[in-house]
Amino acid sequence: MHYSIRPQASNTRLNPFQCILASIITVALKSMFMKCGELKRIYAVSKIDFMIWIVSFACTAFIDVMEGLAISILFALFTVICRSQWPKWQFFFESTQEEQDGDKQSSNPDVCVFRFDGPLLFTNVERFKKGLKRTMDSWMNTWDNGSTGKKVENSDKESSPKRPDTLFKEDSLHSLIIDCSAMAYCDYMAATAFNEVAKDCKDKGGILYIAEALRSALEASGFFKKIEKENVFPTLKDALAIANRNGSALRLLREAKKEQQANQQNSHAPSIAGTSSASLPPTPSSPIVRLSPSMNKK
Fold first, then answer.
1. Where is the STAS domain (predicted)?
2. DSSP for 85-142, written as a single string
């Protein structure tokens, strides 16, 4: 009995302190409970962050602090892996037509910009190549259908009907710009994919420009053996400026060549159509005047 009474007495003496401990825990968790008011804003910004918050709160409140923290970290890492495997991509090619608001776009419709929002790794390199192929097909189809420029984001559906690989039209210089500003890092498979893209673009008759790329990784993979370093730019603005300038210069040269050929054809054509030389009146022959050396000196 002596040993059974002592624990009861000690528990009785600790009861007030347990209430104090519960109050301390409640005050410490007050800030976490107050965060519930931000759930609406978090859900509007990112649904993945919303799920991370819900999982972290539920595990910490109903399981344990340490176990809930571990589960929250693992769940957050899982979402990062998923987002790195399925990043968004978008492309934009320009048009010379007027939009509804009256603002005119760039005068060079031969430039297409492709952007990949995420690091380029072996887990998503196939998605990168697939998105770039759809971009090329959709861009090339615009010259057959005469459609206007457009912007497509994260197009997992077929944006254009399947067609065999064809060359770009020869009357203009087509430039493809890959915006790598969102690529924090890339691995060996990514560098190999860039080499395949450069070869494919060259076979189709276009020029490839790279903006804000990791030059060290590209140089180590031998990328600059297939494309010149002058085609890699530090910013997207510089790449657009060079692509527009080269395209405009080539169009001017080809227009001048066509005009010269037209002038040559017109010079060989008869001045009066349907009139034979026999029906024309004879032209009087004018005497040939030859100047003597003395007259030339004067």
1. 109-243
2. HS-EEEEEE--SSB-TTS-B--S-TTEEEEEEES-B-TTTHHHHHHHHHHHHHHHHHH
pLDDT of residue 145: 53
Confirm if 211 and 239 have CB atoms less than 8 A apart: yes
User: Are 92 and 235 in a shared domain?
Assistant: yes
d(CA 281, CA 246): 53
pTM of the predicted model as reported, rounded to 2 decimal places = 0.60
Q: In terms of residue numbers, what domain contains 68?
A: 29-85
Q: What local confidence, expressed as pLDDT, does residue 184 receive?
A: 80
Q: Which two tokens stand for residue 85?
A: 């495997």
DSSP character string of 222-263: TGGGTS-GGGEESSHHHHHHHHHHHHHHHHHHHHHHHHHHHH
Closest CA to 114 of 99, 95, 133, 140: 133
Assess contact for 182 and 116: CB atoms under 8 A.
Answer: yes
β 207-211/232-233 pair status: parallel
- Asked if 38 and 92 sit in the same domain, the reply is no
Q: Which of 251, 270, 289 is the C-terminal boundary of a domain?
A: 251
Are residue 33 and residue 78 in the same domain, yes or no? yes
User: What pLDDT sits at residue 74?
Assistant: 95
Which helix (H) or strand (E) is 6 found in, with range? helix 2-28
Report CA 169 to chain centroid distance, whole Å: 22
Residues 197, 124 share a domain: yes
pLDDT in tens, 26-36: 787 777 778 78
